[in-house]
């Protein structure tokens, strides 16, 4: 059994270091952070405690712990907290206590996740968000798609999105279930989430949205993974445009926009404090940072989320 | 079997090298305007009855004027044809032509022993070289994989298989294959890395009999990661890690950013990590761009090499060059790469990263794959042609 963290903290010699990395962001970043802390514990003599709310390193000498903290900051963009011991002991103890008592993230089995996606009430799993351009004025667009489950595992999140997308699309064409979806606002441009298989996945195949090749038609939002088979994406994009859709790509990270050059698509990505180095001509920013929404969201060609 | 060299050319790479040299020479003649006579000895047309040792000796005698050193430059193509080059007028080429025609009167000399002039007929020479390399062997469109007729596993069946994997002994399911360097001047391929991976079809059949995993890519990926994490857990022991050596591990992004790999990474130390090549599916990069960016930064810090596995060339064309910096690429050779018009070929070539030293060509099952790679400056190969000698 692992020694109690309080006993270990009390037994720390003066001149030691404590490094705490709160559990936040994706699981991979957490795993890398913990591995670097464990390496520092081996190099400098010490211990790592894995709490539900974050990982704590108690190190006998400061060097390895400081280097690990710096490396974690560079790799994940979130620098851990570090204290010299015994000076930081009180503050550290408060953080560690809270992290120890934090609820552990739910471990989903695939069967449980699939059941959740199939059975949760539609009004909980479908979400309508509104978008506008520039500084003021009325909303211009609305997105109907699956609500994010905020899982720490991107693979599971993608699987849940697939299941939920199909469910929302099926409900949209269903006379009874349709009433359970959030009501679409008349007159706003529609942004609709599609699964990896595109409109083929909807009951009855392609949904006609309007006149062919209208760049201002409703936007079909496809996950970025569709680019894995570029010929398949080209075919899908062509048939969507024929049916009156504009083609959108949903990226889970805005830096992707700096790496890829895909003609004639509208990008959608979570909003960040700073714009990407390359701004695409058409961009939809997801999420509403509070209290400091970045100014760049109002630049031309950008739709950003507003309160519903 | 080679008719001209005493040393038996088992692997065909010497013939491949000759063919590449001949193609280069034809282009040089065009560029410089230097004139050459070319005799193409189409020994591949010689009927089987004349291939007995007795007749072979006669053929060899007829070829004697070519075999004398310094008379002509002689190239042997894959398939056994010979090509002799000489400055004009090239009497000894005519001598050979006469000798062989007498030996094989049933085949018209213009068919068996065509004479070409460089630089005027360089295009013809290049065409025949490409044909010998198999580069003109445009394959029929590959058939789509036939559905197995088996149902995909349910989510709970996959959950059970993943639990089974966590304690499974993978020894019987691991596959090893070499990655080799073979440049046009090399007599033998040099081993670079040994690829180690769990063989998923067998593993899936053992854990989920009667189910077809390939029908649902997301589930297949989940299963792949479970198998890889199990393999990594077995490797992450000091004595196993020490034995790893120059290894190529094809791993999903979801397996790399996990405890088992990070433990192996720590055990390897800087010298072990420098000998490691990790190949991540290009589709994983798209599915989790933030995770892939983290992995690249981690690689730069820890010292292992990172490659994109099996990227669609069209995807590479969509990526900005600066986004590919520092990455290697493992492309899969497909016979279809030989097809297409000049425009399609140029478009494929444009998708290849400029630094060809960072490209590995997998699926090299025929010498045409090596030739295709060499034409593009690729010297790292994986497949039957370089394997098993």
Question: Can you describe this structure in just a few lines?
Answer:
The complex is a heterodimer of chains A (308) and B (389). In chain A, 33% of the residues lie in helices and 21% in strands.
Keywords:
heterodimer, A: 308 residues, alpha/beta, Alpha-Beta Plaits, TIM Barrel, 2 domains, 8-stranded mixed β-barrel, 4-stranded antiparallel sheet, 9 helices, B: 389 residues, 8-stranded mixed barrel, 16% strand
Report on this structure.
The complex is a heterodimer of chains A (308) and B (389). Helix content of chain A is 33%, strand content 21%. With 308 residues, chain A is an alpha/beta fold. Chain A folds into two domains: 5-101, Alpha-Beta Plaits, CATH 3.30.70; 110-306, TIM Barrel. An eight-stranded mixed barrel of chain A has the order 5-6-7-8-9-10-11-12. Chain A has a four-stranded antiparallel β-sheet with strand order 2-3-1-4, with helices on both faces. In chain A, helix 2 (27-44) packs antiparallel against helix 3. Chain A is elongated. In chain A, 41% of the residues are buried. Chain B has helices at 13-32, 53-62, 64-67, 91-103, 109-112, 122-133, 155-167, 200-207, 217-235, 238-243, 253-256, 259-274, 282-287, 289-302, 313-318, 342-351, 367-375; strands spanning 36-41, 73-76, 82-86, 115-118, 174-181, 190-198, 247-250, 276-281, 305-309, 328-332, 359-362, 380-381. Chain B has 389 residues and is α/β, with parallel strands linked by helices. Chain B folds into two domains: 13-133, Alpha-Beta Plaits (2-Layer Sandwich), CATH 3.30.70; 155-381, Alpha-Beta Barrel (TIM Barrel). The model of chain B is unreliable at 4-10 (pLDDT under 50). In chain B, the strands form two sheets. Chain B has an eight-stranded mixed barrel, surrounded by four helices. Chain B has a four-stranded antiparallel β-sheet with strand order 2-3-1-4, covered by helices on one side. Chain B contains 17 helices and twelve strands. The A-B interface holds A 26-29, 31-32, 34-35, 38-39, 42, 71, 74-76, 109-111, 113-114, 153-155, 158-159, 162, 223-225, 227-231, 251-253, 255-256, 258-262, 278 and B 154-156, 158-159, 218-219, 221-222, 225, 253-254, 257-259, 262-263, 265-266, 282-283, 286-291, 293-295, 297-298, 301, 312, 314-315, 318-320, 323.
């Amino acid at each position: 059994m692992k020694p109690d963290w309080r006993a270990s903290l009390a037994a720390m010699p003066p001149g030691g270091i404590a490094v705490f990395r709160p559990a936040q962001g994706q699981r991979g970043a957490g795993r890398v952070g913990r591995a670097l802390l464990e390496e520092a514990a081996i190099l400098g003599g010490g211990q790592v405690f894995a709490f539900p709310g974050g990982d704590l390193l108690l190190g006998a000498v400061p060097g390895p712990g400081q280097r690990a903290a710096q490396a974690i900051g560079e790799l994940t963009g979130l620098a851990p907290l570090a204290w010299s011991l015994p000076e930081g002991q009180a503050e550290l103890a408060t953080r560690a206590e809270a992290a120890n008592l934090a609820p552990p993230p739910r471990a989903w089995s695939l069967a449980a996740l699939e059941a959740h996606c199939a059975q949760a009430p539609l009004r909980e799993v479908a979400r309508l968000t509104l978008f506008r351009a520039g500084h003021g004025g009325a909303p211009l667009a609305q997105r109907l798609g699956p609500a994010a489950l905020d899982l720490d595992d991107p693979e599971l999140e993608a699987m849940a999105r697939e299941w939920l997308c199909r469910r929302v699309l099926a409900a949209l064409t269903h006379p009874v279930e349709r009433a359970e979806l959030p009501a679409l606002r008349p007159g706003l441009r529609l942004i609709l989430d599609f699964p990896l298989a595109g409109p083929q996945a909807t009951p009855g195949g392609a949904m006609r949205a309007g006149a062919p090749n209208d760049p201002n038609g409703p936007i079909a939002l496809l996950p970025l993974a569709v680019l894995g088979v570029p010929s398949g994406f080209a075919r899908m994009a062509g048939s969507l445009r024929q049916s009156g859709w504009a083609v959108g790509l949903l990226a889970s990270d805005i830096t992707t926009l700096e790496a890829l050059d895909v003609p004639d698509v509208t990008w959608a990505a979570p909003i960040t404090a700073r714009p990407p180095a390359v701004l695409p001509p058409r961009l939809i920013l997801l999420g509403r940072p509070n209290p400091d929404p970045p100014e760049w969201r109002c630049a031309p060609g950008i739709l950003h989320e507003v309160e519903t | 079997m080679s008719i001209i060299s005493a040393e038996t050319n088992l692997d065909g790479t010497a013939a491949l090298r000759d063919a590449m040299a001949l193609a280069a020479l034809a282009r040089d003649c065009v560029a410089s305007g230097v004139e050459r006579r070319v005799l193409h000895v189409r020994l591949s047309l010689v009927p089987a009855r004349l291939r007995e040792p007795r007749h072979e000796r006669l053929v060899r005698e007829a070829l004697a004027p070519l075999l004398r050193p310094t008379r002509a430059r002689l190239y042997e193509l894959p398939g056994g044809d010979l090509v002799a080059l000489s400055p004009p007028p090239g009497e000894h080429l005519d001598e050979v032509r006469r000798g062989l025609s007498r030996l094989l009167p049933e085949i018209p000399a213009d068919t068996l022993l065509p004479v070409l002039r460089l630089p005027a007929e360089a295009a013809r020479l290049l065409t025949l070289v490409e044909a010998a390399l198999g580069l003109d062997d445009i394959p029929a469109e590959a058939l789509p994989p036939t559905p197995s007729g088996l149902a995909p596993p349910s989510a709970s069946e996959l959950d059970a298989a993943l639990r089974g994997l966590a304690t499974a002994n993978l020894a019987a399911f691991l596959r090893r294959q070499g990655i080799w360097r073979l440049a046009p001047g090399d007599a033998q391929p040099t081993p670079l890395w040994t690829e180690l991976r769990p063989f998923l079809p067998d593993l899936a059949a053992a854990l989920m009999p009667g189910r077809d995993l390939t029908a649902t890519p997301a589930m297949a990926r989940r299963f792949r990661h479970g198998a890889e994490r199990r393999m990594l857990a077995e490797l992450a022991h000091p004595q196993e890690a020490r034995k790893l050596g120059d290894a190529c591990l094809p791993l999903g992004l979801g397996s790399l950013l996990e405890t088992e790999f990070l433990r192996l990474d720590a055990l390897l130390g800087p010298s072990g990590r420098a000998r490691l090549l990790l190949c991540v599916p290009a589709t994983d990069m798209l599915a989790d761009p933030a995770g892939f960016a983290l992995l690249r930064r981690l690689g730069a810090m820890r010292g292992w090499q990172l490659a994109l596995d099996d990227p669609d060339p069209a995807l590479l064309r969509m990526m900005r060059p600066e986004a590919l910096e520092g990455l290697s690429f493992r492309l899969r050779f497909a016979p279809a790469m030989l097809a297409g018009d000049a425009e399609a070929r140029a478009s494929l070539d444009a998708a290849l990263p400029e630094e060809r030293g960072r490209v590995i060509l997998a699926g090299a099952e025929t010498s045409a794959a090596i030739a295709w790679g060499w034409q593009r400056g690729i010297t790292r190969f994986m497949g039957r042609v370089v394997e098993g000698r």
